[in-house]
Specification:
With 338 residues, the chain is α+β, with helices and mostly antiparallel strands. Helix content is 36%, strand content 21%. Strands 8, 9, 10, 11, 12 and 13 form a 6-stranded antiparallel β-sheet that branches. A hairpin with a 5-residue loop joins strand 12 (280-287) and strand 13.
């Protein structure tokens, strides 16, 4: 394995220390992805530098000019305070002719907009839930063909931001209230889509042209109240105490209906290519009780900390954490012909 000069860039508040000793549990959790990536790459023998980015690309450009990294490892989730600006930073790297890990600008744009990605996939006859978009500043008017129950989300944010039990609505009054919540508290347009009862599946994909689909993963709800809708709220995804209390965990999807595993693998490759994704991504699905698979959304550059879904799924496929990071580096270099 060739040792590389790797420039890891992330939000300036998340540049990891050399050691996590002395940090609070919250600080450790906030820095977990950045620390795991940077410390592991260094332990693998790569020469690693970090740079924090907030709303100015000059620090990134300065390190590139001075150090001449062979590849940049992208751990940045927003730029200038907006998640939708992530494509601008990798566009800058392309202009600077610096190879980078993860998704290209076009794929980031197509996947970020939940409505746009669903339209593209529906055109290619991939099943998606019925949906409607509610732009900020406009009256909420539900299309007659869009029936309840609906789940209301931000059109462009990920990581379940803005999703709670109240996101599941069953009448026009609640729909209007939740759409207004997204507009006012998240600051984006809203999308309301038909809620699909069933199992929540996650599928990680690695590659550019030649793709590797990792084992199907599932979000498991083992101790939820009987009347609670099984949706991946922000609390369920990120609140460790709540996860423990309610038995929320993720793991390999077991006892899938016959043929579903193969179907998920095949469809995931199609979706990845239709949305022009590169590097690595996680695709989210719902599997209905009738065995119908619905695409929900694509997440380019998902969490790659140890113990997260992608790393655990890779481990189930026989790929160690370090080997997964090396694959991500190699894929980034290949896209640029290095």
């Amino acid at each position: 394995m060739k040792k590389l000069r790797v420039l890891a860039f992330m939000h300036e508040d998340l540049v990891p220390p050399e050691s996590m000793k002395g940090l609070s549990d919250k600080e450790r959790e906030d820095l977990r992805t950045e620390y795991d990536v940077v410390s592991s790459l260094a332990a693998m023998g790569h020469e690693v530098r970090t740079v924090g980015v907030r709303n100015d690309l000059a620090p990134l450009g300065s390190v590139i000019e001075e150090w001449k990294p062979e590849i940049a490892f992208n751990i940045l989730e927003e730029f200038h305070g907006k998640a939708t600006n992530d494509y601008l930073v990798v566009s800058y790297l392309e202009l600077m002719n610096v190879p980078y890990t993860g998704c290209n600008p076009r794929g980031l744009i197509l996947a970020r907009d939940k409505a746009l990605s669903k339209k593209l996939l529906a055109y290619h006859r991939i099943r998606v839930p019925d949906f409607a978009v509610f732009p900020a500043g406009k009256k909420v008017k539900r299309p007659k063909k869009l029936g309840y129950p609906l789940i209301v989300k931000s059109l462009v944010e990920e990581a379940s931001l803005g999703i709670a039990q109240a996101s599941l609505v069953d009448n026009d009054e609640k729909l209007a209230e939740r759409v207004q919540f997204i507009h006012e508290n998240i600051g984006t347009d809203a999308i309301a889509e038909k809620f699909i009862e069933g199992r929540e599946l996650y599928v990680s994909v690695l590659g550019n042209q030649r793709l590797q689909v990792l084992p199907v993963w599932e979000l498991l709800f083992t101790n939820m109240p009987p009347d609670a809708p099984l949706i991946a709220t922000a609390k369920i995804k990120w609140d460790k105490t709540y996860q423990k209390k309610r038995g929320i965990e993720s793991g390999a999807a077991k006892n899938l209906p016959p043929g579903i595993d193969e179907k998920v693998q095949r469809i995931s490759k199609r979706i990845y290519r239709i949305l022009e994704l590169t590097g690595y991504a996680r695709l989210d699905y719902r599997l209905s009780p009738e065995g119908e698979l619905y695409f929900l959304e694509a997440n380019p550059n998902p969490q790659v900390a140890r113990g997260e879904d992608m790393a655990d799924s890779a481990l189930a496929a026989g790929i160690s954490y370090e080997a997964m990071l090396q694959k991500i580096l190699n894929i980034g270099l290949k896209r640029n012909g290095r």
